[in-house]
Specification:
The chain is mainly beta. The chain is built from no helices and 10 strands. The radius of gyration is 13 Å and the shape is globular. The termini are far apart.
Length: about 110
């Protein structure tokens, strides 16, 4: 079964950190660039970060540069998003996307 399963979301205070994981199955994970998107209430889904298939190139939205880091482990079929210095405006449902399928999303809430 082709699927992406995110985990690691939760409630965190401003300035805190979270690490999201996205486990892939059912396809050749190492052949695909992977992406993290997010969607806040009332807003369109936006691209947060992209990593190429071998991890050689990383792309970030301006809003998260210097705070978020995308990485992957092709041996574990998993992509990660390390989020540091979190702000209330980072509150959203975070999704991973392979270019073909979406995960179900994981909620991140940044609030004191």
């Amino acid at each position: 079964q082709v699927q992406l399963v995110e985990s690691g979301g939760g409630l965190v205070q401003p300035g805190g950190s979270l690490r999201l994981s996205c486990a892939a199955s059912g396809f050749t994970f190492s052949s695909y660039a992977m992406n993290w998107y997010r969607q806040a209430p009332g807003k369109e889904r936006e691209l947060v970060a992209t990593i190429t298939s071998a991890g050689a190139r990383l792309i970030y939205a301006d809003s998260v540069k210097g705070r978020f880091t995308i990485s992957r482990d092709n041996a574990k079929n998993t992509v990660y998003l390390q989020m540091n210095s979190l702000k209330p405006e980072d509150t959203a449902v975070y999704y991973c996307y392979s270019g073909r399928i979406w995960g179900q999303g994981t909620q991140v809430t940044v609030s004191s």
